[in-house]
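Form 7-S
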Amino acid sequence: MMYLNKLLSITSERQPNFKNIEKILSNKVPDRPTLFEFFLNDKMYEQLSEKELKGKSFLQSNIIKMMAYRYAGFDYFTLSYPDGFLFSSNEHDTLESISLNETAIIKNEEDFLRYQWPDANNYDYSYIDNMKKSVPKGMKAIIYSPGGLLENTTQLLGYDNMCLLLFDDIDFFKKVVDKVGNTLYKFYENVMGNDLIGAAIVNDDWGFNTQTMINEKWMKQFIFPWQKKIVKLIHSYGKKAILHSCGQLENVMDDVINDMAFDAKHSFEDNILPIEQVIVEYGDKIAILGGIDLHYICTHNYQEIQHRARQLLTMTKKTGGYALGTGNSVPYYIEAEKYYAMILTALE
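Output:
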């Protein structure tokens, strides 16, 4: 626990300052090296906050996670959508790994009408205001939605069925997309005006390792217009929009940057494009968040991980627009001490 103890000794006296991550999202140089992470994991939340999650209410759990972000040295914390706000009550929702075909619920018009669609206006958003008294001075929340547009559409239709619909009944595919898109838009409408919310993540996985999940022409026709509308809404509140999307997106990055106008991109893998190359290729056009590949962290030692982290911070010291973190999130299988060693390079 050497690295954890060292981390806590530094962050206990460290004051969060949301302006640092805000500068990065504006592609500027922050006042000090800055961290970004979408998720940690329950073990880390408990280690860092010294609180147990078991048996805690929705609000209490969010406060514990916020405390973990604070003691890990972050200037913000990620905040979830309202309790119970999901697009599916499918029995597979709690599994760690499932087939993209396994969650299909809507196969036809009858299923569409029978399905109990969530209404973003029918959930309790008071947890955001109720958190305020627990949030340290200088810290704000970055909120994310209950899955993304393509993610939820894929889950509801099943991947194979969705692909067939694109040829057999594209109007029905659009009907489902628009229903999901409208719900997500209303969610962001309900939260972006709250002064605790400093920015928003639009979380929607679009690709596999080699290509987008559906043809780019369909992405541009059905998916991107809704994302552009959501980004415009976030911007209308003077706040930044972060795209979290896994997969090979090289052929749509121009759309991400110039059409949808995202401020930052998150989720990277070395086998698609190493983060160092991402920074060279896109760093002057969009903020880059995280990027140290999870496989790299699993298979390299402390010194190698710290060396790569320092190189990234050095590489972006004068240009800005970069926050240190993993390529995706911090799953349970990552050795916690390796992660703490990595982020210490930004905090020491």
